[in-house]
């Protein structure tokens, strides 16, 4: 059984370790324990027990809304089960992702082609639909009322996925970025790109990174994983490393050796930068390398075509 971990970030805000894949520091969910409670991300359905235990440890039996940055399974796969467990919760999602939560069959089938049926069961658990009348459809400029005059602002941030949004909240200073910036595991929070098909687009990601940076958040709340207070460095590093990744994939031969070459190059780069082996292993274990190469390759082909 995963040991529940809840971190008090101040300003009625908590970070919950969802225990994804049974390991710590794989998925962070963020809870505003305000008059209108809002949870950001629910993860896949197989972590719902961990999430419920974390909320119960705070004395919480229901929330006003659970909102997701995008509908990829590691962020929203458990949305339907969460809606069943917490009947008072609206389920917030970008308008381009709402249909996938209401009817997850197409999303599930697409993911199953990547992970296989056995992998889907092991990594994510099943999906169930969210009733359409429970959906809170969000877009650029939407706000979510926390009560007592506090609001979450919604930014539409495609580039990683066409249904990606980011949540910013002024009182805490937090910006909760899902996968739009990348992954940044503690401790050190080195930012690594996330470039999956079919929606990845380098210029769109860069445009959104600069929009997010312009808001000068007090901290960046990564889904994978945790809080980074030096937001200026985070956005600059994300843009720089993304450019390096795209240039490297563009230089490859375009054959079956590309994935191994990409992985070796990235990990050797980290070693050259003085990153310790334990941190490098954490990034390696949390990166599905074929997906990163395929996403960049697809964007390069569209650009050249």
Task: Give a verbal description of the structure.
- It is a single chain.
- This protein has a single domain (5-246), classed as Ribonuclease Z/Hydroxyacylglutathione hydrolase-like (Metallo-beta-lactamase, Chain A).
- Helix 6 runs antiparallel to helix 7 (231-251) and helix 7 packs across helix 10.
- The mean pLDDT is 95.
- Helices cover 40% and strands 20% of the residues.
- The longest helix is centred in the last third of the chain and has 21 residues, at 231-251.
- It contains 10 helices and 13 strands.
- The strands form 2 sheets. A 7-stranded mixed beta sheet has the order 1-2-3-4-5-6-7.
- The protein is globular.
- It is an alpha/beta fold.
Strand order of the largest sheet: 1-2-3-4-5-6-7
**Per the principal axes of the C-alpha atoms, what is the gross shape?**
globular
CATH topology: Metallo-beta-lactamase, Chain A
Structural class: alpha/beta
Kindly give the count of domains. Answer: 1
Sheet with the most strands, sense and barrel status: 7 strands, mixed
CATH superfamily: Ribonuclease Z/Hydroxyacylglutathione hydrolase-like
Short description:
This protein is an alpha/beta fold.
Write the layout of secondary structure elements.
Layout: E1 5-10, E2 13-17, E3 28-32, E4 38-40, H1 48-57, E5 65-67, H2 73-76, H3 79-85, E6 90-94, H4 95-102, H5 105-123, E7 135-138, E8 143-147, E9 150-156, E10 165-169, E11 174-178, H6 202-214, E12 219-222, E13 226-228, H7 231-251, H8 258-272, H9 277-285, H10 289-304
Parallel strand pairs: 4-5, 5-6, 6-7, 11-12
Antiparallel strand pairs: 1-2, 2-3, 3-4, 8-9, 9-10, 10-11, 12-13
Helix pairs in contact: 6-7, 7-10
């Amino acid at each position: 059984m995963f040991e529940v971990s809840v971190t008090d970030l101040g300003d009625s805000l908590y970070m919950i370790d969802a225990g994804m894949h049974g390991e710590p520091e794989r998925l962070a969910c963020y809870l505003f324990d305000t008059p209108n409670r809002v949870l950001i991300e629910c993860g896949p359905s197989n972590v719902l027990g961990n999430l419920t235990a974390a909320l119960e440890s705070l004395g919480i039996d229901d929330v006003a809304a659970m909102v997701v940055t995008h509908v990829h399974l590691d962020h929203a796969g458990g949305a339907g089960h969460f809606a069943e467990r917490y009947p008072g919760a609206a389920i917030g999602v970008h308008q381009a992702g709402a249909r996938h939560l209401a009817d997850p069959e197409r999303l599930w089938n697409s993911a199953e082609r990547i992970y296989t049926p056995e992998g889907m069961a092991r990594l994510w658990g099943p999906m169930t639909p969210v009733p359409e009348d429970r959906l809170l459809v969000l877009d650029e400029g939407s706000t979510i009322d926390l009560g007592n005059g506090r609001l979450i602002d919604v930014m539409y941030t495609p580039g990683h996925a066409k249904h990606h949004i980011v949540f910013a909240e002024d009182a805490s200073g937090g910006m909760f970025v899902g996968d739009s910036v990348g992954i940044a595991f503690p401790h050190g929070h080195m930012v690594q790109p996330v470039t999956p098909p079919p929606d990845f687009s380098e210029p769109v990601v860069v445009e959104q990174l600069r929009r997010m940076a312009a808001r000068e958040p007090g901290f960046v709340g990564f889904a994978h994983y945790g809080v980074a207070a030096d937001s200026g460095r985070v956005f600059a590093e994300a843009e720089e490393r993304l450019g390096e990744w795209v240039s490297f994939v563009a230089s490859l031969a375009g054959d079956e050796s590309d994935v191994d070459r990409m992985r070796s190059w990235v990990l050797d780069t980290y070693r050259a930068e003085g990153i310790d082996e334990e941190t490098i292993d954490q990034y390696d274990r949390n990166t599905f390398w074929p997906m990163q190469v395929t996403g960049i390759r697809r964007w390069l082909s569209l650009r050249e075509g």
